[in-house]
Amino acid sequence: MVTNFDKKNFIKNFKINCKKIQIKKFLKGETVTTYIEKRNQICIVLSGEVDLIRYDVNGNKTIIGHFVENDIFGEVFYPANTNNELFITSVKKSEILFFTYDTLFEKCEFECNFHKELMNNLSELFIDEIIDLNLRIELLTKRSIREKLLSYFEILSKRSMRKIFTIPYTYTDLADYFSVDRSSLMRELKMLIDEGFIKKEGNKITLLF
Amino acid sequence: MVTNFDKKNFIKNFKINCKKIQIKKFLKGETVTTYIEKRNQICIVLSGEVDLIRYDVNGNKTIIGHFVENDIFGEVFYPANTNNELFITSVKKSEILFFTYDTLFEKCEFECNFHKELMNNLSELFIDEIIDLNLRIELLTKRSIREKLLSYFEILSKRSMRKIFTIPYTYTDLADYFSVDRSSLMRELKMLIDEGFIKKEGNKITLLF
DNA sequence: ACAAATCTGTTGCATTTGCAACAGATTTTA
DNA sequence: TAAAATCTGTTGCAAATGCAACAGATTTGT
Fold it and tell me: Residues with Cβ < 8 Å from B82, sequence gap 6 or more?
């Protein structure tokens, strides 16, 4: 977080009564939106979790993004001219706020404060998103699965200020996040254990160095 | 580009006479800034090109970002708690604009318009940066070098609306961008040629499908 | 509470990728 | 414009990763 502005409160302190902004609820497995049409949509996760999924021409499915409470996503952030179909699926019961980037800067007929607040704080949300993306690139560009794991563990360790911490994903999802084969990831984990670098109990990891 | 706002003009139409914003010039090879200290710095490339370079604990050097005219970068966008040393080097003669995210929202003593404009247009710059990062992740998460190349070529082809187009990097840099070994990339290129998918003349590529 | 679905852990084998090394081409710099 | 530096193109071999397949554990849904 860059400043001490609090994303949660800024969103939740406002009663949203303006037509430019919509809130919808989704159940697990439902499709929240697709990135096919060009409508400059921006979304914020108010509660729950959603995945950004890519189906390529061969039908391969990859989770290329994962958004949790207060994360921002939307087709505005995606390059045009991609071949893939991208869409957002709800991982669990979720509440999503929708608005259109362009209309956000138009004056609201109800003069609602949410509008103004959202505009003011949009930069902070963008910066947080950029930080997340850079972190992922940081890890994706590591040369081996081992390096990916160790870098990621060190980050989690520093964040929690402990040598022991919990991975916030399943191993299946972690493999997706790193974009590597799950069984290869498990194998590398095992080697790290055997070589005495880490200890593992479920998704609790202890660094031994 | 999301709206029809023009980044170049917005920056160049203003005479910058406020102390909160600095412009510095750099020669090839000079270090523009480091991402070690936490000072919420944001930079915009006015002219030239810079690389974001990572040195990891083993001393391996990786180019993890490349910024050209009108691109935005800075330590604000990087997760804290990384082990790596990140710094920005000038690839050629460059002109860089510096400001601090926090002070941008303070009132300027000269009441200069640039301030206001910069604030208003910051979101657009952020969105463009997010689009670039998502594109890179899109490619990095492709499962093989072949898929990375083909996806990238298709994007370049669609952008230029031609089957023939020029890669805006050297092959060495492209390998860095994909985070793969250069010789492996060359080998895969050759296979694509031999199998009749593409034609290649220097960094001009023709799609044959 | 039971069935269904998903996730974990493991392995052998095929394939891809990385590494090292080098010669020639091209570009940059003094 | 000559020398230095960087980039291209290539190869053989080693190492890492992906793929397929499966059994048991865990979680989820009804």
Answer: A138, A151, A155
pTM for this structure?
A: 0.89
Question: What class, spelled out in words, does domain A143-207 have in CATH?
Answer: mainly alpha
Question: Does A137 contact chain B (CB < 8 Å)?
Answer: yes
Residues on chain A touching B41 (C-beta within 8 angstroms): none
**Alpha-carbon gap, residue A171 to A168, rounded angstroms:** 9
Per-residue pLDDT tens digits for B103-130? 776 655 556 666 667 777 888 889 999 9
What residue is closest to D6 (Cα–C1')? B172
Tell me whether A27 touches chain B (CB under 8 Å).
Answer: no
Q: Domain B7-139: which topology?
A: Jelly Rolls (2.60.120)
The answer to whether the CB of B32 falls within 8 A of the CB of B50 is yes
Assigned token pair, B144: 């093989």
**Is residue B127 less than 8 Å (CB to CB) from chain A?**
yes
- Tell me the per-residue pLDDT of A28-69, one tens digit each, with 9 for 90 and over: 888 899 887 677 889 999 888 898 888 766 656 778 888 988
